[in-house]
Structure formats: structure tokens, C-alpha cells
Design brief:
The complex is a heterodimer of chains A (203) and B (476). With 203 residues, chain A is of the alpha/beta class. Chain A has 8 helices and 7 strands, in the order βααβαβαβαβββααα. Chain A is globular and about 65 Å long. By secondary structure, chain B is of the alpha/beta class. Chain B is built from 17 helices and 19 strands. The radius of gyration of chain B is 22 Å and the shape is globular. The chains are: A alpha/beta (203), B alpha/beta (476).
């Protein structure tokens, strides 16, 4: 993963609360065996009309939203399934950061592992951001703040390890593999102790 | 003496390979990794690209359920996949399991089925374990007092390679369900009611422990229904303390310990329930006696209400849109709303007891004209047991379709779906916009409510169909 230190973009806004992973990427597109190419189906059933043309009522189809890579979304964004296809689709669509007052647990974990920033801001500031699409923002990952056009700042807190991984492009699987000795020792101690309980017994 | 601990804390502590610090999450050991075709191919590719082996094939169990057709193979042996891509995805899992030595319950297995149905059936799911799967409804296994939660595909790769996950310790939420459920009201009504009370994000950041007399009185199948929907309140996991009901259900299952190992296991499992005086980050109390047959009226599971109660007015534009989408009317109850499709199935409600509950109402009755009803057993074992009891005959005689096991219309990615605008009374777990087909309107309900609605052609109270049933009088 390449390091992410700063994201600069205008904001696009989806005010709906509880935007679930089925809305981000409907299940019928999950038959893929790859991570790529899902952007064209991002928000598919919201974004397109039944004839396949763009839905003019979908906020991200507005000309002003084109090219925006920061999404401000209503509370509890990403609720629902554990499909990592949701962050894959958003990234492929061009979204690099989601700002929200609350983000669903599994979605947030998946997003951060793919370099999609999922940032929780205070409710009052969230309301303010929701009301102002097109705002020019700069996200500073190291400083944990969003810089506003007038120089003002909105702070956020990233889980320290996720922040470290983003800033340094740390490969989390690589990090886990470095702890192989600890894992081996744990397994050795535990399997001796509890062989009777946890060994799988076949007929 | 050590401080009293909750069930969650005991399981967590026993699986910590490296504790969390301010800078780093804990490394948590995984006892059982469940795998299916949709969220695994990219993880297997990751192993391949890094030249890694799958660390514990003996703790990995795979099946086919999401993309699989529920109509049987044709005379030529060809299965009616929804797309060439779905066929490839299934073939990919078969190849991956062969290459990495994973036990796959595929098309030729007598145990194939929905991943959260077969884990418990095989006895692979047991108290005190950590269980993960690239599927948010992994919370189902919490019914056995196992810490079980859904993960994304990157983490599926982590577990394949290391049998571990990087995790921050979640908070705990105790939901006490006091009293007893009234006759004709079941586990699905209970959990829909709970989510309606605490909200679709009421459990975010928490692991729920369901407690209290009404929970202890539930069967294992009912406990699985409750824990299954923990994620619909935003909680990653839901737990119920193991007890005699749990042990009796597990005893003799193919992968459950046997003989002395069984006795040793039970002795250890008895130490798992939360200690007296253990504290939770949050606690909620629910009175089971107040729960009635409950359904959803909006586009997320938190928009749930007793079917005979008036739908509340929208509090904001999103709720207004949800009511418009569902064509639910504020001030009017959901009961009586015309139904197009009824689906009985999914990891929430596709077990034998669920099918019995639906059959009890359908026996000697017909699905209303114009209503399509689909019954999809959760596994081959459920299908066999149901057919042995003749339940399939009850469904077929009533005019319902009896299918091959799979996730089917819950996620609607295998071709089983509803048409735009159709109202589906569904025993599944999600009523999101378009979940069961573009424009389809989902009302979540219990198997009994679903069956009653199929017969009535409108959303109906199952108790009206059970009054003349002697078993109901006994229960009451």
C-alpha cells in the first residue's frame, strides 16, 4: 500500500443516514473474483435510471460533484454486510476519504486496510459539512485535522495503528507475519493445554 | 482473586497472542475460519502472489452458498447459475480449496449449506471459540457462546496466512430480556423488537451479550436467530452463555469432542458464563412479555414495529423516503398490507424448527392467489430432515416452491429475486433498498408471520392461524 499523508479535494455530499453496503455496491455485482473494476457499479441502483442513463437526482451525478474525492455522508455510513467490495468500489469510483459522525465497524476496518480514509468528526461539524457541498478541504493524516478554506480546522481521531499504517504504507499482513514466533508459541502452549477441547475430531 | 469477567472477556483473554497497546491492536488467535465463494477469491490470490501457505487448513471450513442456484441441476447435469461469472466464482473456490488443502462442503457433499447453518450442524462451532468468516452474519455462532464476527476479504487473507487478526478490544453491551415471550411470538419477533428499540447503530463498537429468562428459555435454533441479527444493530458479535441447552444440542455432532474429551470440554464450557458482578460498558432491559409479532416498515432493520401498531410518522427526509419506498403509511399498521412474494430461508430462519413453524400454518391451507412463496432450507441436512418429516409435501401442496439449500433471496445474487415494486415478506435479515432485487420492498418477519401472510395474501398475524391448533393451546 502506498503511503497516504494528505488528501486535497472539494467535497461531495450524500446526506442520507445509514447508507448500507447494498446501496454502495448491490450484491449482484459480487460474483467477481477480482478487486478491480467495481467503480462503474458504485451506487449502481441510485446512480443510474432503469434505462442505464445517469440519474440526475443522484447527488454525485451533479456536475459540481465531478472529480470530488472527499465524500461527506450521513451518519452510520457503510452499515450492513462485510463485503470489502464496498471500499473497492468507492476507491475505483474516485472516492479517497469519507467524513461522517459515525461509520459502521466492519466497513471502516475494510476501508482503512485499502487506504480509503474513513474519518469520524464531531456531530456539529458533521452537520455543518453536510450542509456545504463543494467545500475545498485538505485532510492531514499525520496532524489528524481537516483544513477548511478559511484556514480553520476540524479534528478527527484515527486509531493509532491504522494511522501509522496509512502514513507509512505498512502492509498489515507483513506486520502479522513478523509475529510468527509469537503465534507459534501461543499455539504450542494452548494446544498442549486444551487439546481435548479444541482439536477437531472426525468420525 | 481475579476480577469478575464477562463471557466476552473470558473468550477474548484466552485468544490474545499479543495484547493491545496504545499504538498497536491486539493479535487475536482464530479457532475456526469459515469460507465461502464470494469473499475469498481475492484472499486466496493474495496468498498465491506472496507465495504463502494457508496456515491451518484443519481449522478452515468452506462451503458454497451465496452464488449457488437453488433450482436443481438439469437433466444434462448443468446447474442453472445466474451468470457465467457466478459459475466461475464457484469453480474458483473448488480450485482454491483443492490447492490449499481446505475441507470444502461443495456440490457433492451431503452437508453443503449456508455457512452459518452448517458450522453448528457439523459441531465445528463450539463454546469458547473465536470464529470468523468473510460474512457479517458470522455473529450467528455467538449463540453457542463463541466470539464470532464478520471480517473483510483482506482480513480473510490475514487469517488464512497467520490464523490471527489485528483487533482492538470492543466494548460490551448487555441486553437483558426479562420475562417470557407470549404464545405465538418467537425469536425473530424478539430480535426485531430489540433492534427497533436500540436502533440500527445501537450496537456499533460493542459485542452484545443477550441475557435473561427469555433468552435462557430459547432453543439453540432460536438463539442462532437472535445472535444472527446482532450485526443489524451495528454490533459485530452477539453472545449467549452456553448452558445445558447448548451442550445437549452439540453432543454427538460429527466434529464435537467425544467420550472423555467431551466431558472435559463441557467442564471447561461451564466456566464460560459471565461471573456474578461482571460489568458491561452498557446495559439495556427489554420486557419479553410486551413483544408481539413484529415486522419492519422501512428500509433498515431498526425500522421495526409490532405488525398491529400504527407505523410512526417520518422524523426526517430519509425516513420519509423509506416510507415512500416501502409504500408504508404513517398512522396505519403493516398488518393487512398486500403481499406479492413470501421467502422462508436465509441464515436467520432456514433451520428445521423454522420450517416446522411455517409448515404448521400452511398445513391444509393454500398460498393466496397471486402470491409466490419460496421455501429454501438452510442446508442439505435440513432438507433431508424436512423431507423425512414430509414438510416439503406441506409446502408443495400449499403451492409454495421447495428449493435446494443456499442464501437465495436473502442476498438475491443467485437469480432468486423479486421484481421492482413487489412486496416480499421475508424471514431474512436485511430490508435495505433493493436488497432482494432492484425496487423490491422487503418486510422482515418470522417464519410464522411469513407463512400466515402467504395464506392471507396480506401481512397477517400468525396467532390468528394457530388458535385452532392444539399445540398452541398447550403452549399457552
Amino acid at each position: 500500500m502506498k503511503p497516504i499523508t494528505r488528501i486535497h479535494s472539494r467535497t461531495a455530499v450524500l446526506t442520507d443516514e445509514n447508507i448500507d453496503t447494498d446501496r454502495i455496491i448491490p450484491a449482484r455485482f459480487l460474483t467477481t473474483t477480482s478487486r478491480t473494476g467495481l467503480g462503474k457499479h458504485c451506487f449502481n441502483d441510485w446512480r443510474y435510471l432503469p434505462d442505464g442513463s445517469d440519474n440526475p437526482d443522484f447527488p454525485l451525478n451533479q456536475p459540481a460533484a465531478h472529480g470530488c474525492s472527499i465524500l461527506v455522508a450521513g451518519r452510520n455510513f457503510g452499515c450492513g454486510s462485510s463485503r470489502e467490495h464496498a471500499p473497492w468500489a468507492l476507491l475505483d469510483y474516485g472516492i479517497e476519504a469519507v467524513l461522517c459522525s459515525e461509520i459502521a465497524d466492519i466497513f471502516r476496518s475494510n476501508a482503512l486496510k485499502n487506504g480509503l480514509l474513513t474519518l469520524v468528526v464531531a456531530e456539529a461539524e458533521h452537520r455543518w459539512l453536510l450542509a456545504k457541498p463543494g467545500l475545498e478541504l485538505a485532510i492531514d493524516v499525520a496532524g489528524q485535522f481537516v483544513e477548511l478554506p478559511d484556514g480553520g480546522r476540524i479534528s478527527f481521531q484515527l486509531e493509532p495503528f491504522a494511522r501509522h499504517c496509512l502514513l507509512n504504507g505498512v502492509d498489515q499482513l507483513g506486520y502479522l507475519l513478523q509475529h510468527a514466533d509469537l503465534i507459534d508459541a501461543f499455539v504450542h502452549a494452548r494446544e498442549h493445554q486444551e487439546a481435548a477441547v479444541h482439536s477437531r475430531t472426525f468420525q | 482473586m481475579s476480577a469478575p469477567r464477562t463471557l466476552f472477556e473470558k473468550i477474548w483473554d484466552a485468544h490474545v497472542v499479543a495484547p493491545e497497546s496504545a499504538d498497536t491492536p491486539a493479535i487475536l488467535y482464530v479457532d475456526l475460519h469459515l469460507v465461502h465463494e464470494v469473499t475469498s477469491p481475492q484472499a486466496f490470490d493474495e496468498l498465491r502472489s506472496r507465495g504463502l501457505k494457508l496456515r491451518r487448513p484443519d481449522r478452515t471450513l468452506a462451503t458454497l452458498d451465496h452464488s449457488t442456484p437453488t433450482l436443481p441441476a438439469g437433466p444434462d447435469g448443468e446447474r442453472p447459475y445466474a451468470s457465467a461469472e457466478a459459475r466461475v466464482q464457484v469453480a474458483q473456490l473448488e480450485t482454491n480449496c483443492r490447492e490449499f488443502g481446505v475441507e470444502l462442503h461443495g456440490w457433492d457433499s451431503a452437508d453443503r449449506g449456508i455457512v452459518h447453518v452448517i458450522g453448528p450442524e457439523l459441531g465445528a462451532t463450539r463454546p469458547g471459540m473465536t470464529i470468523v468468516c468473510g460474512d457479517s452474519h458470522t455473529s450467528t455462532h455467538g449463540a453457542f457462546g463463541a466470539l464470532a464476527f464478520g471480517i473483510g476479504t483482506t482480513e480473510v487473507g490475514h487469517v488464512m496466512a497467520t490464523q490471527c487478526l489485528l483487533q482492538r478490544k470492543p466494548k460490551t453491551l448487555a441486553i437483558h430480556v426479562d420475562g417470557a415471550l407470549p404464545a405465538g411470538v418467537g425469536a425473530k419477533d424478539l430480535i426485531l423488537h430489540v433492534i427497533g428499540e436500540i436502533g440500527v447503530d445501537g450496537g456499533t463498537g460493542h459485542v452484545i451479550e443477550y441475557r435473561g429468562a427469555a433468552i435462557e428459555a430459547l432453543s439453540m435454533e432460536e438463539r442462532m436467530t437472535v445472535c444472527n441479527m446482532s450485526i443489524e444493530a451495528g454490533a459485530r458479535a452477539g453472545l449467549i452463555a452456553p448452558d445445558e441447552t447448548t451442550f445437549a444440542w452439540l453432543k454427538g455432532r460429527p466434529q464435537a469432542p467425544q467420550g472423555e474429551a467431551w466431558d472435559a470440554a463441557v467442564a471447561r464450557w461451564r466456566t464460560l458464563p459471565s461471573d456474578a458482578g461482571a460489568s458491561y460498558d452498557r446495559e439495556v432491559r427489554i420486557d419479553a412479555g410486551q413483544i408481539r409479532p413484529t415486522v419492519t416498515y422501512g428500509t433498515h432493520p431498526g425500522m421495526a414495529i409490532a405488525m398491529d401498531k400504527p407505523v410512526p410518522a417520518a422524523r426526517n427526509a430519509v425516513e420519509r423516503r423509506a416510507l415512500d419506498y416501502m409504500r408504508s403509511e404513517a398512522g396505519r399498521p403493516m398488518q393487512g398490507m398486500p403481499v406479492d412474494v413470501v421467502f422462508v430461508g436465509s441464515c436467520t430462519n432456514s433451520r428445521l424448527s423454522d420450517l416446522r413453524e411455517a409448515a404448521r400454518i400452511l398445513r391444509g391451507r393454500r398460498v393466496a392467489d397471486g402470491v409466490r412463496m419460496l421455501v429454501v432450507p438452510g442446508s442439505e441436512a435440513v432438507r433431508r430432515d424436512a423431507e423425512r418429516e414430509g414438510l416439503h409435501q406441506v409446502f408443495l401442496a400449499a403451492g409454495a416452491e421447495w428449493r435446494v439449500p443456499g442464501c437465495s433471496m436473502c442476498i438475491a445474487m443467485n437469480g432468486d429475486l423479486a421484481q421492482p415494486g413487489q412486496l416480499v415478506v421475508s424471514t431474512s435479515n436485511r430490508n435495505f433498498e433493493g436488497r432482494q432485487g432492484k425496487g423490491a420492498r422487503t418486510v422482515l418477519a418470522s417464519p410464522a408471520s411469513a407463512a400466515a401472510s402467504a395464506v392471507a395474501g396480506v401481512i397477517a398475524d400468525p396467532r390468528d392461524y394457530l388458535r385452532d391448533d392444539p399445540r398452541q393451546e398447550q403452549a399457552a
